[in-house]
């Protein structure tokens, strides 16, 4: 069959067609990208269990996958959704009742003697912050149908990633434009990031959230369970973390004249909560993925505005991948230079031998 295109033109047009179609697909699914990212994170987290039950104990893979889906929904998705809804509800309350925050600010101003800001600015900042946090967290208020579709698509993708695990892994190895060693490095980076920023960080955040909530409850801070939930989410942020919760609580107690309770919160926060945070991070870092805190912090700043709450993992992962690819690029360039140097040395050696033979 005759064609007006040369083989090279056909190849270029084929690649262009693939890129255009992929662009349409990505544009159409952009609202549900968190479902695929969440499925990938769950796959990495639960893969050791799947391997132990299916490949070692020879259990039925469909049955094991169904159990893992039920486990992830009951133990991971529902509690996290409940915490998110609780946090969003309280944030919306404070955004509509800014007088409570204004009273606290006035007391802090009376204690310190510094004018912080005008009431109008406080109301605007609180409302903007409430809207921003609500957009980051999953909520039924943002659209029940979209939420159900995202959760269903995530679990559906998760199911086939395990049931068709071998085909899934072969497809990645076949179509990723990297050498096998590079793919292994990227896979190891993904594993380290998920372990450090999901399993390890979630454990650290849970401990800090519980300690913060109990501390505030002991020292009679109102809404201590709510602030414990806030501390859980804030603990994902390196360096800052829970001091953003118990620090203001201590200042509020001091501004209200409860010096003993305010000092007690500061002592427990500085001596217990911060040190436990550092101890757990150091202990878990080597066990669950050695990720530099600067990579985590910069990744969170990068990922959260783009991917929402999943940016806590995706952001550091992107930076880690960037670092790995730079290292791969540097290594391959070095190996290429060494090969070129060897070839040049061989050519010079042959030339010298020919010169000696002539003489």
Automatic annotation (TrEMBL):
The family this protein is said to belong to: Belongs to the autoinducer-2 exporter (AI-2E) (TC 2.A.86) family.
TM annotation in the entry: 12-29, 35-54, 66-88, 140-162, 198-219, 225-247, 259-276, 296-329
One matching Pfam family: AI-2E_transport
One cellular component term from this protein's GO annotations in UniProt: membrane
Disordered as annotated region, ranges: 336-359
Protein name, as recorded: AI-2E family transporter
Subcellular location: Membrane
Keyword flag Transmembrane: yes
Keyword set, alphabetical order: Membrane, Transmembrane, Transmembrane helix
Organism per entry: Spirosoma taeanense
Topological type in the membrane: Multi-pass membrane protein
């Amino acid at each position: 069959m005759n064609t007006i295109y040369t083989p090279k033109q056909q190849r270029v047009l084929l690649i262009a067609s693939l890129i255009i179609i992929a662009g349409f697909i990505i544009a159409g699914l952009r609202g549900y990208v968190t479902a695929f990212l969440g499925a990938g994170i769950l796959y990495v987290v639960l893969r050791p269990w799947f391997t132990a039950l299916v490949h070692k104990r020879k259990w039925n893979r469909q049955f094991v996958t169904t159990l893992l889906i039920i486990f992830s929904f009951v133990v991971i998705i529902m509690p996290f959704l409940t915490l998110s809804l609780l946090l969003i509800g309280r944030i919306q309350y404070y955004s509509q009742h800014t007088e409570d925050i204004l009273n606290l600010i006035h007391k802090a101003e009376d204690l310190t003697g510094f004018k912080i800001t005008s009431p109008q600015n406080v109301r605007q900042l609180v409302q903007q912050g409430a809207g921003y946090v609500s957009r980051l967290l999953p909520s039924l208020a943002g659209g029940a149908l979209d939420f159900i579709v995202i959760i269903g698509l995530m679990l559906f993708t998760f199911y086939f990633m395990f049931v068709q695990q071998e085909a899934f892994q072969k497809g990645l190895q076949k179509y990723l434009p990297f050498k096998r060693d590079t793919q292994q490095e990227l896979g190891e980076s993904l594993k380290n990031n998920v372990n450090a920023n999901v399993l390890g960080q979630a454990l650290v955040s849970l401990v800090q959230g519980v300690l913060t909530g109990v501390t505030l409850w002991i020292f009679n801070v109102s809404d201590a369970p709510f602030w414990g939930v806030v501390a859980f989410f804030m603990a994902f942020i390196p360096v800052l973390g829970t001091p953003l919760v118990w620090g203001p609580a201590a200042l509020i107690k001091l501004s209200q004249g409860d010096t003993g309770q305010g000092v007690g919160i500061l002592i427990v926060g500085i001596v217990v909560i911060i040190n436990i945070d550092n101890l757990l991070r150091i202990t878990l870092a080597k066990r669950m993925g050695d990720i530099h805190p600067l990579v985590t912090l910069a990744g969170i700043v990068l990922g959260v505005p783009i991917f929402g709450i999943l940016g806590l993992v995706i952001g550091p992962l992107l930076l880690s991948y960037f670092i790995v690819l730079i290292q791969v690029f540097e290594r391959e360039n070095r190996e290429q230079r060494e090969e070129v140097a060897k070839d040049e040395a061989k050519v010079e050696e042959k030339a010298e031998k020919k010169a000696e033979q002539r003489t």
